[in-house]
Amino acid sequence: MIKEVKQDLVERRKAPRFKVSLSGLARTQLGYSFEIEVNNISSSGLQFTMWQAEVPILFDLQSSQNTLNPIQVKLTINLSPEKHVSVNCGVVYLNRNSADRCSVGCRFEAFIDKGASQLEDFLSEIVRKNHN
Question: Which of 28, 43, 107, 114 is exposed most, by the fewest CB atoms within 10 A?
Fold first, then answer.
């Protein structure tokens, strides 16, 4: 008999998550890039989906010198057609969604330029819209 085992992820983000659909670009430490779609976001991290075939690009172990540290990736997220945020992230999980898509969870490690304040403004606008 085969028994299905479900494992619930432990919620690590203290800030509330907001469901979104934002396009973006991920760039690995070795300079490879691929398109992503951000599914949820908070002030401390996000989740994006990507093509399963691109997972080996993201998890190229030659780019990681210390296996205790998360895989590093630079994300550029399009908050609107004229505004984007760039942030260096650490990958904290990977979940396979289907035969060709997977979800990746990332924590924010360092915003580039004014990214932190732009993200804060974006999240504040989501909260404002949800309360109206």
Answer: 114
